[in-house]
């Protein structure tokens, strides 16, 4: 649940996206999946889906950024605009021979079309939830669940 008490689902992917088009395609497929499974309408304009985008950039051999996170992106257009802005910003720093800023959490200002630093990124020290015991699932139970799952429309 989020701070307002609403159900919240967080999905984390491996760092596999090399192009902005791949990120956009993934978000569209995720929206379709959430709708198909009747989990959510996943309408970003209604706040039903938000994107927190983590990224790092490699420019040439000498310029590599730490990890940055852009929080609460509310449309595919803003995902693309924020990433393009960050790429241009770092290309400029690279061309000026400057080092990238420390790892940061950013927001995207739609009216100015820029990212804004919220805070330096830190490691979160998560504590286990003492009121929820660990759940152990047998391999045989996982197989049974997998066998009972319906095929998704794009799986052949």
From TrEMBL:
One of its GO terms (molecular function) is glutaminyl-tRNA synthase (glutamine-hydrolyzing) activity. GO terms for biological process: glutaminyl-tRNAGln biosynthesis via transamidation; translation. PROSITE patterns: GATB (PS01234). SUPFAM superfamilies: Glutamine synthetase/guanido kinase. Residues 1-140 form the Aspartyl/Glutamyl-tRNA(Gln) amidotransferase subunit B/E catalytic domain. InterPro entries: Asn/Gln-tRNA_amidoTrfase_suB/E, Asn/Gln-tRNA_Trfase_suB/E_cat, Gln-tRNA_amidoTrfase_suB_CS, Gln_synth/guanido_kin_cat_dom. Keywords: ATP-binding, Ligase, Nucleotide-binding, Protein biosynthesis. Coiled coil: none annotated. PANTHER family: GLUTAMYL-TRNA GLN AMIDOTRANSFERASE SUBUNIT B MITOCHONDRIAL AND PROKARYOTIC PET112-RELATED, GLUTAMYL-TRNA(GLN) AMIDOTRANSFERASE SUBUNIT B, MITOCHONDRIAL. This is 7689_t:CDS:1. The lineage of its organism: Eukaryota, Fungi, Fungi incertae sedis, Mucoromycota, Glomeromycotina.
């Amino acid at each position: 649940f989020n701070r307002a008490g609403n159900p919240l689902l967080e999905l984390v992917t491996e760092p596999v996206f090399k192009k902005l088009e791949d990120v956009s395609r993934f978000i569209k497929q995720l929206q379709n999946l959430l709708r198909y499974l009747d989990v959510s309408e996943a309408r970003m304009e209604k706040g039903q889906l938000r994107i927190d985008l983590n990224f790092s950039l490699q420019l040439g051999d000498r310029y590599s950024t730490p990890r940055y996170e852009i929080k609460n992106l509310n449309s595919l257009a803003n995902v693309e605009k924020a990433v393009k802005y960050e790429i241009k910003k770092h290309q400029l720093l690279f061309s000026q021979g400057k080092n990238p800023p420390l790892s940061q959490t950013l927001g995207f200002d739609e009216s100015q079309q820029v990212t804004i630093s919220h805070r330096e990124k830190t490691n979160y020290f998560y504590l286990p939830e003492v009121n929820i015991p660990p759940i152990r699932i047998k391999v045989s139970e996982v197989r049974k669940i997998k066998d009972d799952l319906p095929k998704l429309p794009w799986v052949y």
